[in-house]
Amino acid sequence: MATLALRNIRKSYLSFEVIKGINLDVADREFVVFVGPSGCGKSTLLRMIAGLEEITSGDLLIDGQRVNAIGPADRGLAMVFQSYALYPHMTVRQNMGFALRMARVPKQERERKVAEAARVLQLEPYLDRRPRELSGGQRQRVAIGRAIVRNPRVFLFDEPLSNLDAALRGQMRIELSRLHEALAATMVYVTHDQVEAMTMADKIVVLQSGRVEQVGSPLELYHRPANLFVAGFIGSPRMNLLPAQLGAEVGDGVMVELRGGERLMLPRPSGPVQPGQPVTLGIRPEALRPDPAGPLAGEVRMVERLGGLTLLHVGLANGQPLIVQIEGSDPTRAHTPIRLSIDAEACHLFDAEGQALPALHQHPLAA
Amino acid sequence: MSSVTAPASQALEEPAAPAQRRWLLMTPAVGVLLLWMIVPLVMTLWFSFQRYNLLNPTVTGFAGLENYEFLVTDPDFWASLVNTLVLVGSVLVITVGLGTLLAVLFDQPFLGSGIARVLAISPFFVMPTVSALVWKNLMMHPIYGVLGALAHALGMPAVDWFADYPMFSVIVIVAWQWLPFALLILLTAIQSLDGEQKEAARMDGAGPIARFFFIILPHLGRAISVVVMMETIFLLTVFAEIFVTTSGGPGNATTNLAFLIYARALLQFDVGGGSAGGVVAIVLANIVAFFLVRSIARRLEV
After folding, report:
1. Domain extents for chain B?
2. Which of A263, A341, B61, B214 could form a cystine bridge with A294, CB 3.0-4.6 A?
């Protein structure tokens, strides 16, 4: 129905380049999320797709057709804005029908489409209200309804949930996923919230300073981050990153020595291994376990009890901080010494440039 | 309001505060208000029922409604009412219409927009007598004026603006003075329009003209009503521009209510008749203010 392709897309303001050559394919009915820290260019990229920002160079293809020179209204896209951007003096019905009115769609058809969208979004009781009389979540749904009514080829979302409170955000996440399934539409979604990215995306695009750091499914990014940036960005609490040094190869494994002199045996990376090579060891908080016989020794500095989970903030003997995620019922208390063991299979190694050294035998993904 | 409520709330906090002290604190505000507004108002009312003509100082005493009767039977009075309405209405249409267009224009980024804004707003800082003189002698004078010179350059006869189109000329001058006010308020209103709304309208397929009518103009509704209210209040009392340029003439062509009152009281020395005109002006202004404030209050609620 609708595919999207970006070919070496660039954007400069005067001599300052903010989008530095992006290549991306979005398949039909795919839910793609652009995620990255603020200022990484994710919103700019979305606005370039929408046609609100000019594309400095490169090609933007919708259904294989170059649309760089086509105006925002004629690209067949619809956008949901962060502030919702509802027209305050129009009723919900007029807001949702505005695009059709501009396209000179006959009144009856307009009414029918608005009613249909209102039914899908459960907005029927509010059709004659004005935006200010609605709650944040309802406004959000009107903004989505305004997009649905146009029957666009691609939906664009610019941080649509960031103005909602946490409970409503969780609810709207599920509603958006449900909507994506019901409409069978291609969607591009921008957020800085990795939970939104992980839960909704078919494909996540991690951006940093105008470049794509990695593209992949949520679990791919989680279990096989391509570099230190993605490793640190995806996952909450963050992955622990420890400076280390490679040692000798032992069969299918490799010895890794931490700053404090602790030695760990990890699966061997697929590439060549040089003893003495400086690396960064990445360990997810859930890959660490309290274990009296474990190789890492430290002190529990703080305990965060979330109920189902407990986070231990541990200081290693060399001062390096670590976050350990364990069960909520664990009795470990703050200011006690602790020893930790590591799930070697779940460890990540990164070279001095921050690129991942993928293990020879990779962890199987759920999806 | 605050001068009334503040002592009252203080009294609530300290129930021991004696009633006399509350009165003492309120006295300055009430006194100034009395001197400033009530005394002149009562004196005007009083004079309007008196025989009080400086040319006939011996004729005094209560006149009843004679001053009012004389006023409403005077064709000049009705002409001045019409002139007032024409002046206010025309200036409102010009300033709001042109002000909206200019505000949209000045909202666009262009080279030197900061300087252009200052220049566009500067007429507001010129005092009315000065701007009237500038228009009268530098712009509209048939011999020395810029417009006259332009007409000559094009081979056309110069127009004697104040003789041939007196009301139009006054309207032009007053509109020139009040356009910056409208522009200033409408420009700030336009700048407060959410940029994403305009972008959403673009995505919805609204062209520049549709965006103006469906997004910008409704957004400006409140600001426009504020401009209309403020300008109406001030335009009902336009005087200096008329005094300096046409002195209400030729005939009574540019005599508005304010100028009529002035002429009655200070040119014909008929203080009683002038006061009657003043009372009518007060009533008129209050009727206008009542409707305007009510309609605007309703808009502000929305």
Report:
1. 1-48, 65-301
2. A341
pTM of the full structure: 0.78
Q: Chain B partners of A86 at a C-beta cutoff of 8 Å?
A: 197, 200
* Structure tokens given for B29: 């505000």
pLDDT in tens, B159-199: 888 888 889 999 999 999 999 999 999 999 999 888 888 88
Please state, as a whole number, how many other Cβ atoms lie within 10 Å of the Cβ of residue A304. 13
Question: Interface pTM (ipTM) of the complex?
Answer: 0.79
Compute the nearest-CA separation of B100 from chain A (Å): 18
Does the domain spanning B65-301 belong to CATH 1.10.3720.10? yes
Per residue in A353-366, pLDDT (tens digit) is 888 888 766 666 65
Q: Which residues in chain B are closer than 8 Å to A67, comparing Cβ atoms? A: none
Which domains occur in chain A, in start order? Answer: 4-232 (3.40.50.300), 237-350 (2.40.50.140)
CB–CB contacts below 8 A, A to B:
58
Mind listing the pLDDT tens digit for each residue in A103-132? 888 999 999 999 988 888 888 889 899 998
- The 10 Å Cβ neighbour count of residue A8 is 11
Query: Do B203 and A78 lie within an 8 Å CB cutoff?
Result: yes
Task: Give the tokens for residue A208.
Answer: 């940093």
Q: Cα–Cα distance between B240 and B262 in angstroms, integer?
A: 11
Q: ω before A152 within 30° of 0 (cis)?
A: no
